[in-house]
Design goal:
about 375 residues, alpha+beta, 2,3-Dihydroxybiphenyl 1,2-Dioxygenase, domain 1, 17 strands
Length: about 375
């Protein structure tokens, strides 16, 4: 039935988006840092619920007097959870305003000084001038710029470093090491911005970072009976770094984007999409670990799946009854299909959530799933009284 072999997507360093510029070569996501109220407890949650592994630690025991950080890994994903150690730390301001959330999207580069010069010369606001940090394992150069809201991009150059994570960190040994859940790398990270701000940030990523806008969705495509939003997907040249940008759109009721902006009190990272090669196994394990996902799409959604795949002459390799039982959604394009599912918010505020995605050839973002997804989110909003 399938006209070509479909296999899991693997993004190399080869340029695949011709419209992207090459002045800021990015090797991948280095780490994502959250500012949280209790890093020790958050670390336990990510280990227990999502199968992350203990990796590195910085705190009082390592000479850090103002903040403590736990670093967790799973395959190529690194999460850093940071909590202030006193009331004077500026990290508190971020937590008081936004709740727990993403502060830093760190990008792995060959040359952090050049990355800083290229972006600040094109209008980026400086967050951190190039800084050399060193210990007995070598040196790391980091620099940084602000993006939407209070979120920052750090550029991390570690070619002369062989330590566990960064200078100042030590290996975090733990007797508690739950099994990994099959999460492999960060596929994309989505930013929510305010009314009429999407095109501003699209232009910023084009001008400042050389990204290309390779997919766009307007409120005619992303709407339900009640709510609507607009979204544009930005990518660097090799496709390893993808940042969809969402903004709210006028509709009968309040969209999930408005709800996020109200509770996060500004623009920020809405969700982190993590890739797997076996979504049925991964989601089954996450559910068993206590991770809560959005409600399962209705029966008619799954009845329409074979026709949507047939339209592109693709054959579904997975058991559709297993996908349906877990609430995993399916979408297809010319290149293949993708499987995806979304968690409920993982913070107390209805802000940040995770997506689990398996790409079987498809490079899209599940446009065919938007309606079912947003209706599921609206059911949660209705319970919260925020629709």
């Amino acid at each position: 039935m399938s006209k070509k072999e479909i296999k899991s997507v693997n993004y190399s360093l080869e340029k695949i988006f011709a419209g992207a510029q090459d002045f800021l070569p990015l090797l991948g996501t280095d780490y994502v840092e959250f500012y949280v109220g209790n890093a020790k407890q958050a670390a336990h949650f990510y280990k227990t619920a999502f199968g992350f592994q203990s990796h590195a630690y910085r705190g009082l025991e390592t000479g850090s007097k103002d903040a403590v950080s736990y670093v967790l890994t799973q395959d190529k994903i690194k999460l850093v959870l940071t909590t202030p150690l006193n009331s004077k730390s500026p990290i508190n301001d971020h937590i008081v305003k936004h709740g727990d959330g993403v502060k830093v999207i760190a990008l792995w580069v060959e040359d952090a000084r050049k990355a800083y010069e290229e972006t600040t010369s094109r209008g980026a606001k400086s967050y951190m001038e190039p800084t050399v940090e060193s210990d007995e394992h070598g040196e790391v150069v980091r620099s940084g710029i602000y993006t939407y809201g209070e979120t920052v991009h750090l550029f991390v150059e570690r070619k002369h470093y062989s330590g566990v994570f960064l200078p100042g960190f030590q290996k975090w040994e733990s007797a508690y090491n739950p099994p990994a859940a099959g999460l492999k790398y960060i596929d994309h990270m989505v930013g929510n911005v305010g009314w009429n701000q999407m095109d501003v940030w699209v232009k910023w990523y084009e001008d400042v970072m050389g990204f290309e806008n390779f997919l766009s969705f307007d409120d005619k495509q992303i709407h339900t009976e009640y709510s609507a939003l607009m979204s544009k997907v930005m990518s660097n040249g090799n496709g390893r770094i993808k940042f969809p940008i969402n903004e709210p759109a006028k509709a009968a009721k309040r969209s999930q984007i408005e709800e996020y902006l109200d509770f996060y009190e500004g623009a920020g990272v809405q969700h982190i999409a993590v890739a797997t090669d076996d979504i049925i196994k991964t989601v089954s394990q996450l559910k068993a670990n206590g991770v809560e996902f959005l409600s399962i799409p209705p029966e008619e959604y799954y009845r329409s799946v074979p026709g949507r795949l047939e339209e592109f002459s693709h054959e579904l390799r997975e058991d559709i009854d297993k996908l349906k039982g877990l609430g995993i959604m399916i979408d297809a394009d010319e290149e293949g299909y993708l499987l995806q599912i979304f968690t409920k918010p993982i913070e107390d505020r209805p802000t940040l959530f995770f997506e689990v995605i398996q790409r079987m050839g498809a490079r899209g973002f599940g446009a065919g799933n938007f309606k079912a997804l947003f209706e599921s989110i609206e059911r949660e909003q209705a319970k919260r009284g925020t629709l």
